[in-house]
Every structure is written in C-alpha cells, then in structure tokens.
Amino acid sequence: MVNAERSERQSVLGTGAPIGRIAAASVALWLLAAVLGARQIAAVLRSPPGERLIELENWIGPLGVLQVRGSLYAGGEFSGTPFTGLVLRPLKQSAEHSLGVFWAFGTLLLVALIGVVAARALPAPVTRRAALLGAPVAIVLMMLSLPVRNTLHLGQTSIIPVLLVLLGCFTARGERTAGVLIGIGAALQPTVLLFAPLLWCTGRRRAAVSAAGTFAAATALAWAAMPHDSWTYWVHHLAGAGLGGAPAQVSNQSLHGALLRLGLHGPGETAVFAALGIVVASVGLRRAVHYARDGQLLLAVALTGCVAVAVSPTAWQHQLLWLLLAVVGRVGTKAASRLVWPAAVVVVMTLPAKVILLDRAVLFPLRDNLLLLTALAAACAVPFLSRTSPYFRDPIRTDYAIPVDARWKRIPLLPLWRRALTRPNLLLELLLIRVFYWAYSQVRLAATAGREQAEAHGTQIFELEKALFLDIELWLNHVVARTPWLEAAMNSYYTSFHFVVPLVILAVLYRRRPADYRWARSALGLATLLGLAGFWLYPLAPPRLMPDLGFVDTIHGVQDFTRPGYGAMTALTNQYAAMPSLHFGWALWCGLVLAVLASRWWLKALGLLHPTLTLVVIVGTANHWILDAVGGALVVGAGFFLVHVLSGPRRTKEPAPGAAAEPLSSAREAAIRTPS
C-alpha cells in the first residue's frame, strides 16, 4: 500500500505548472520556521532557571526525582511511566550543565523531523504545491501550536512518541522495525498501544505483534529495575491516573478530566469514563482503519492519536499534537468550504480557548473542554472524504464575477483577490471575525502610552480645532450634561449601536448579497487595521480625560485625575485609543454600505443618519474630538480604496440569468474558474 502511494505521488509530481512562485513561497516558509524556532529557543534561554524547562528540572535537575533515591512518584511531580524514568536516568549527570540547552535544541529538531515525515506521508495524489510547501507549513504550524510551545516551556518528552509512531508507520523498513518503534512509544506513553489494533486490522500483523511485544518487554524491564515504582504507576495509580497534577484541571483534556469537571466523582465517574472510552475507541479505531485502507494512513494515524487522547486518564496540553495532524483530512464538497476544518483545528491548537469562545458562564463547559471536543469530533464525527469521492481532488469550484475594466492598468493589484459570487462558509467567517476582533482588542490594549504624551496630543488637537473654529466639544458636552433625557439617550446610543448595527448589516449581506458581503467585510477589516496603526502612532487623550478643560464624562462618571490609572475602563481597554475614532468610522462604514447597496430611499437615509447621530453622540459624551471623527472617515475611505486597488472595481450590476457573458480568452476563463 505504501509503495503504491509513493508511485502515485511521483506520477503526480511529474506534471504541473512551473514552480518558481511555489519555490519562493517554500523558501519564505522555511525562513519563517527558522525564525520561529530561534524565537522559541530565545524564549527558553531568557527565562530564569526556575521558570524554564520546569518538568525537566523536576525530573533530572539537581534536586529532581531522578537524582534522589527512593520512589519516582513520592513527590507527585513525576508523571511519566517507569520506563521513561529508566531511560532518563543516564542523563541526570549532565543535568547541572548544558542539558537544558541541548534539550531545547533537540526538541526543535524533533519537531522539524515530524514535519518532514508528515509531509512525505500526505495521501496521494500530491500536487507540486503540497510537495514543496507541506514540510515548512507543518513545521510552522507545530511551532505555533500550544503542545509544542508547552513542551518547550516544560521540557517534556511528549513529542517523542508521536515521532516514533510516524517513523514506524511511514519510514521504517520491515514490519518488525516499525513495531519496535511504536512499542517504545507505547512504553513512554501507554495509550500509544492503541496503534497495535490499527496495524493488525490493516494487515500489518507482524508490526502489531512486534509493537505489543516491545511494549511488554520494555515494561517488564522497568518492573525488574524498579518494581516498587512500577507497582505504584500501573496498579496503585491505574496506569498513571492522578499523577502530575489534579486530573480535574482544565489542562487535562481527556474524557476523565471532562467528567470530573462536570461534577462526577467516584465509582460512577469511573463507570461512565470506561463506557465512553470503549465507545470512542471502537468508533474511532473503526474510522481509522477505514481511512487507512482508503490510502489515507496519515489521517488514520491522527484519528488513532485523537482516540488515545480521549481515553487516556490524563491528556495534558503537551500531549495533544496528534490533533494537529488531523488537518490532512479533507472535508466538504465545495472549494469554499475546504478550509473550514483545517482552519478550525489550527485556531484551536494555537489560541487559548478563551479567545475562541466568549467569556460567558453558559459557554464554560465548551471552553474548558474545547481541545477534547475537537479531538472527539475528529475521531468519531467529522465526515472526511474518501479518496474514491469525486470531490476529493476536484471540489465544486467557486464562481467569480467577471473582472471589470479599470481606469488604471495596475488595478486590480492582486488578481488572485477576486470577487467571489458564492456565499462564504458561515463557520469560517464567524471564526475569522472572532479571532480578528480578539487580535484587534489585544493590539488596541497593547498600544498604550504615557498620560503625559496622550494629554500633550490632546492639547495639540484642541488648539488645532480652535484654529479651525471646530472646537464645539465643550459647549455640546455641557448641553448634554444639563439635559437628563438627552444625556440618557446619548449614553444608550453610544453603548448600544456601535456593535449592533455593523453586525446586523453584515448578517443581512451574508444572507442576501454574498458577493457584496465580501467587499464590505474586507473594507471594514482594512479600515480597522489602519485604525490600529493610528492608535500606535498617535496616542490621544479624549476630551473626558483632559483635566482642567471642564468636560463631563456622561457615561463613566467623574474621573479622579489624581490617580495615575484614572478612568473607569483603564484596566480593561486602552483609554488613549481615540485617533482615529473607529466608533465613528464603523458608523460611517454602515452608512456608506447602506447608501450604496440599499434599494429603498428610506434605508439609504437611515444609513446616512447613523454616522451623523454617532458624530453628535461621541462629541456630546466627551469621548472624542471632532478631528477624531475626521480620522475615522479617512481610514474608512482608505479601506474602501484598498479593496478597490487590490481586487478591482465592484461590479454594480450582475449579469442577468441566462444572459450571454462577454467573450473570454481561455487563459482568462481558467483564471476566473480556479478553485479558491
């Protein structure tokens, strides 16, 4: 089976377009992988001795458990198998010298080796692009993933079993050698023994027997060398359950940990865990065997690893690298939906769960078990395509609008950024919006400045407005503060409509005008990025945070200017992110989109009324200067202009159904119909 895949892969690689651009992208990705690796090494070396390679120090450091006579598990810090302790003992003599440095470099080398092996194991047919970019993409993703970052920080050994399994399945010559490698991995991490049934059911029975025999021999060797520790691990702690920290911690992403967090304890929890484990193992291994027979052995390995994560008593964050391998599975019949599954896995594996899900109590069960739920979905539920499916290689292509001639020949600047007519995938859009807004909030919060600088810029703006006869903020603010009903109305408008109106417009466009949704969404995103640049370059104190000018903060109340961190929201957001005003900018975006796309005159009027009211509100509540709104208008205009430059003019009217399209050259038509 493996030889057939290799021959098919070679036949596909022999054809294709020139690879100049792909080779350049490959070089860039390898450089990015090197930069990320250097950054990880620097982060480890710059950390104080007590804060780097914590687990490694606890195991083989000067005072580690392997340096002290007695039980490995007496202090509760060592969580590996007795065989792991037996293997690590020879390293303890060099622990006081440079072992930590070599361990960090060695870990990165192993990560790179995993990426290369995984790329070579991609299911055939493999395109030129996948062949050249597979390894660097895999390494970059692993460098960014939580398991690898956690492994480097703690000094763990959890990526070694992953590498041993991949070597046994894809590079070892002979079934016995493959079984030995997988058996050693199981001796280091017992649930890896689940790969023996996968080998047996896919016809590699010698490898399965060899894996089980190697595991038994290594475990017996550890029993002979450390009988008391082996009894403690295998019998007293039931294969390590409860070692290395409380199993109810959020970092334990196994079924056992999830049940404990849900409030189950005692024999009842054990029975439920055993029943669920049997179901997950049977369903997951059956699916893994199916995909292995289908020629997708790497996907089968990933699914088996996800099963191992779920049924293990403890599956810590650094042991979840199996899930990242599941990105090789292809899901969906449409080209536009093909990125949903890999994007979801990458986001889950690289960002904390609190970033992906909102901080709401009702979502805590999902947030606390997000990695486990993703692993369960991969193992038991996600409908990966079979290689026999007609959509495996040729998904349903995305329809693109016919390009519109532009006045300047360099528009569109990026022809690949074309205007798709089909509706984008909803899950992918929601994921994109959530991650983008989190990144926006983090950058906005990080773009801090000193109070003195922000107030100096506030004085500059105030003086400039006086010179331009625009300084109406103080008068309008006092009018609002003296009129209770007006103050209440403006406070409500300020806090309510900023997010609601853009989200409603995006939702309606997504449902009814998908092509215009992409155009409007891209303009809003680019405008927001430009706004973040303004926050960094020109921190500005809004009127309400300018002492001695007499402004009244109608929303947050009176500020205590004698305190360094004054301001009711100082601890939550950057109070000096005022120029440009994205509060006005987003409102202006809403007005322009409605003015351009709405079919009824009263909707256009409401759209233009919204930014007008927003301007009055942000000035009347003392949250922005007039010139902040001017800055917001500039970044919104720049956002629409950039979309125009990058993708070309927006077609104002789509061709009528059945109408004859303008004649296209074969090359142009091929470019338009290329899958997204």
Put the structure in a nutshell:
The protein has 676 residues and is mainly α. It is 62% helix and 0% strand. The model is unreliable at 1-17 and 655-676 (pLDDT under 50).
The value of Rg in angstroms is: 30 Å
Largest sheet, described in full? none
What would the average pLDDT be, to the nearest integer? 82
- What is the overall number of helices? 29
Percent in strands: under 5%
Order of helices and strands: HHHHHHHHHHHHHHHHHHHHHHHHHHHHH
Global geometry: globular
Low-pLDDT runs: 1-17, 655-676
The helix/strand class is: mainly alpha
Can you count the beta strands? 0
- Cα separation of the termini: 31 Å
Percent of residues in helices: 55-70%
